[in-house]
Amino acid sequence: MKALTFSRFGSPDVLEVRDVPEPIAPLEHALVRLKAIGMNFADVYRRRGNYHLEGAPPWILGYEGAGVVAEAAGSFAAGARVGFADVPHANAELVSAPVEKLVPLPDDVTFETAAALLLQGLTAHYLVHDSYALRRGDEVLVHAAAGGVGLLLVQIATILGARVTGIVSSDAKRAAVASAGAHAVHLYTEGWAAETRAGTPGGRGFDVVYDSVGSTLDLSLRAARTGGHVVFYGMAGGDPALVDPRRLMDESKTLTGGDLWNVLTTHEERVRRAGELFTWVRSGALAVHLGGTFALADGRRAHEALEGRATTGKLLLIP
User: Fold this and answer.
1) 59-60 vs 139-142, strand pairing mode
2) Does a structural domain hold residue 128?
3) How far is CA 104 from CA 31, 110, 233, 283, in A?
4) Are residues 154 and 231 in the same domain?
5) Using CA atoms, how far apart are residues 304 and 13, in angstroms rounded to an integer?
6) Number of domains making up the chain
7) 21: exposed, middle or buried (Cβ count in 10 Å: 0-12, 13-18, 19+)
8) How many CA atoms, within 13 angstroms, populate the side-chain half-sphere of residue 269?
9) Domain end residue (candidates: 217, 233, 257)
10) pTM for the whole thing?
């Protein structure tokens, strides 16, 4: 089969499509023929050597995708349409996937939609239900609001009745966040914490701030109201400064960490949460933003586009 591989760390130039042996599906695994593969920035980190990789080169990137089951396995018949968010070696024509990690796809949800939605959509889902239980009328601040998780988070928070403010890195990204339902969209200026806080009722601050940037954590705490919450779930902009717990006590604020893999602990949880996402998509309440599709053979160009941060929305590889 064809797979997008690399044998040394570096720029997108280290990537090459080559023939590799087809994977073997052991007990409780299914062989899935990929139709669409979701790209994530973690793929860039792994290619650079910043993330742990198992096995020996040539390595195969990718963790998210959708396709059809090649041979019956578990409760899935041959030909069943499925998606997944955390199955390694997905940048290929075939992948061996644990049955418990597969999510059945409704007939009216395309492979492309599923591959673009599952990982980041499930992340947004746990952020508004588990890290902080979002309530109608909450004032919400979303960092990197034009990113994959950001756009979904803005929409889902709006569906749940919150009033959302987004922060973006450029004027070009404002429109996408506004169309996703944000009440206001701000740029990362020097005074963004005070500017965004001033837009809340009475200037009291936000009930919850979703911070995926990391280096902005101190200012996120400033933007939160007294008694408010900050959910820290990413470090795209670098490591956060240390937080003095006395500050949390003095300001009655809560700082919560979040990781999807502490939530998706059973097959039932995956199916339930994904099902809610699919319901919103099918009703038109939740839109999946595609930033572009690339053939698997054009993996280098896809990585260049992702790494360049010039696109808005999800990038897909198509085998």
Assistant:
1) unpaired
2) no
3) 14, 12, 27, 18
4) yes
5) 9
6) 2
7) exposed
8) 14
9) 257
10) 0.93
User: Token digits for 150?
Assistant: 């950001």
Shared domain check, 267 and 247: no
Looking at 219, 240, 257, the residue that finishes a domain is 257
Please tell me whether residues 149 and 218 are part of one structural domain.
yes
Q: What is the CATH number of the domain that holds 95?
A: 3.90.180.10
- Give all strands (DSSP E) within the chain, no chain letters: 2-6, 16-19, 29-38, 59-60, 64-69, 81-84, 94-98, 103-104, 139-142, 163-168, 184-187, 206-211, 224-232, 254-257, 290-295, 314-318
Q: How far apart are CA 88 and CA 61, in angstroms?
A: 7
Domain hosting 177: range is 136-257
Per-residue pLDDT tens, the chain, 319 aa: give them.
999 999 999 999 999 999 999 999 999 999 999 999 999 988 988 999 988 887 889 999 999 999 999 999 989 999 999 999 999 999 999 999 999 999 999 999 999 999 999 999 999 999 999 999 999 999 999 999 988 899 999 999 999 999 999 999 889 889 999 999 999 999 999 999 999 999 999 999 999 999 999 899 999 999 999 999 999 998 888 888 899 999 999 999 999 998 898 999 999 999 999 999 999 999 999 999 888 999 999 999 999 988 876 666 789 999 9
Cβ–Cβ < 8 Å for 294, 318: yes
| Residue 243 and residue 269 in one domain | no
Which residue, 151, 156, 200, 123, is CA-closest to 312? 151
CATH code for the domain in which residue 236 is found? 3.40.50.720
- The contacts of residue 298 (CB under 8 Å, 6+ apart) are none
39, 173, 290 from 143: Cα distances, Å: 20, 12, 20
Alpha-carbon gap, residue 14 to 299, rounded angstroms: 10
